[in-house]
Amino acid sequence: MKLYLIVSLFFISQLSYGQLKSKNVLITYYSKTANTQSLAEEVAKGAQSIPGVHVVLKSIQQTTTKDLLDADAIIIGSPVYNANLAPEVVKFMSEWPFEGNPLKDKIGAAFVTAGGISAGEELAQVNILHSMLIFGMIVVGGDQWTSAFGASAITNEGIFKTEKLDKLFLQKGFALGSRVATLAKKMN
Question: To which H or E segment does residue 10 belong?
Answer without folding.
Answer: helix 2-20
